[in-house]
Structure to design on (395 residues):
């Protein structure tokens, strides 16, 4: 016979009471689980790394005038700052609820890295799932979308696919990483082959940066839909193999190892697994910052394999013997030699010297300069990518 006697149970710390039958423990546990889940959702507090509670607030609010209000909830912190690419580093003010806040800008619509500095410690925004894939600094990404017509905007157009791949590197003796973009309708056209462009990331960036920050897939989707760029495959290799070995191998060999892996391991993997056109007339290489120098070094040393070369805000120290001594021969092999840099970039002097070097040796090249994208930034890299993709593999 069922015992319908009942008891009350108070949940410590929540000020809540559950009414249950003392012989129906399963129902009690189920009710307790549901109640605790609901309580966790409804309690209006949030905590950022470092401890301390405050009222729940959005960490970034883009206002109607394109100013941005940054909020960080931590009542225990002594000092909180925010560092954002469009405004620099600023100290925030704490309110009575323990929420640190500041409004900066206005800023042009774009994607801006930012982070908080809490009592001297740099931290990402725990409320923001979008972050900058880098091996040293850890920034979050602020996306000011504007009217939705930015070059990297997600539009109602056919979209390509992005694959994360691992390939065996004989050079490194391990599996290495790369990301591959295939254009819209790639899978629906099994007999069609495509040009391929290799994009190498900058110093301490991972292979994800051209995808997560550069938005190369959306930029190319939009260009293809407009008829402004050819269908092509993009390959994003990992450009810093020294970290594979935790510094156990001599750093002098890392550049040579990267070049060897690229030519002998990565390129054959791509040719085997993707429908690339295996002809130098349909193959390009380039990159941002250090990746641009890596790309030019590989491309200029292998003009039998590449006919399109791109440098985006790059440190360049490439003087390949024999390449610049015969301008006519070299120019006949290069369909496009594209170089872009911001005049406010800390690498501008080096990049301009290389451009002048090319001009002095009679090497044809296309130059693009900016002065409004905060220097050595991915605002520039996205813009340069949009400009150069339009010119690749055009007859």
């Amino acid at each position: 016979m069922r015992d319908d006697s009942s008891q009350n149970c108070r949940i410590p710390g929540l000020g809540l009471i559950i009414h249950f039958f003392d012989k129906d423990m399963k129902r009690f546990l189920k009710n307790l689980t549901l109640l605790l889940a609901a309580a966790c959702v409804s309690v209006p507090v949030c905590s950022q790394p470092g401890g301390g509670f405050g009222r729940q607030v959005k960490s970034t609010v883009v206002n109607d005038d394109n100013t941005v209000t940054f909020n960080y909830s931590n009542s225990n912190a002594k000092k909180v700052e925010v560092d954002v690419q469009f405004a620099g580093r600023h100290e925030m003010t704490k309110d009575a609820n323990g929420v640190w806040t500041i409004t900066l800008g206005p800023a042009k619509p774009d994607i801006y890295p930012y982070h908080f500095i809490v009592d001297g410690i740099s931290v990402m925004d725990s409320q923001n799932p979008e972050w900058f894939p880098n091996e040293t600094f850890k920034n979050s990404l602020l996306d000011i979308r504007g009217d939705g017509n930015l070059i990297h905007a997600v539009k109602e157009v056919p979209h390509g696919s992005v694959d994360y791949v691992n390939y065996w590197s004989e050079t490194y003796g391990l599996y290495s990483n790369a990301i591959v973009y295939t254009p819209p309708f790639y899978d629906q056209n099994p007999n069609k082959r495509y040009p391929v462009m290799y994009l190498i990331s900058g110093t301490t960036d991972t292979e994800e940066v051209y995808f997560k920050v550069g938005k190369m897939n959306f930029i190319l989707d939009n260009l293809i839909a407009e008829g402004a760029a050819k269908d092509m495959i993009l390959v994003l290799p990992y450009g810093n193999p020294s970290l594979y070995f935790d510094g156990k191998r001599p750093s002098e060999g890392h550049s040579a190892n990267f070049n060897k892996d690229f030519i002998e391991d990565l390129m054959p993997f791509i040719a085997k697994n993707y429908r690339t056109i295996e002809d130098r007339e349909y193959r390009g290489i380039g990159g941002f910052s250090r990746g641009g120098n890596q790309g030019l070094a590989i491309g200029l040393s292998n003009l039998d394999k590449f006919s399109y070369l791109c440098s985006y805000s790059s440190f360049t120290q490439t003087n390949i013997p024999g390449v610049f001594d015969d301008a006519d021969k070299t120019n006949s092999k290069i369909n496009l030699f594209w170089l872009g840099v911001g005049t406010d970039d800390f690498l501008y002097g080096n990049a301009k010297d290389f451009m002048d070097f090319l001009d002095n040796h009679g090497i044809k090249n296309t130059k693009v300069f900016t002065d409004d994208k905060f220097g050595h930034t991915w605002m520039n890299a996205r813009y340069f990518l949009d400009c150069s993709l339009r010119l690749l593999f055009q007859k």
Remarks:
- The two ends are 88 Å apart (CA to CA).
- Confidence is low (pLDDT under 50) at residues 1-30, 32-47, 49-54, 248-253.
- The chain has three domains: 1-37, 54-144, 161-389.
- Residues 254-273 form the longest helix (20 residues).
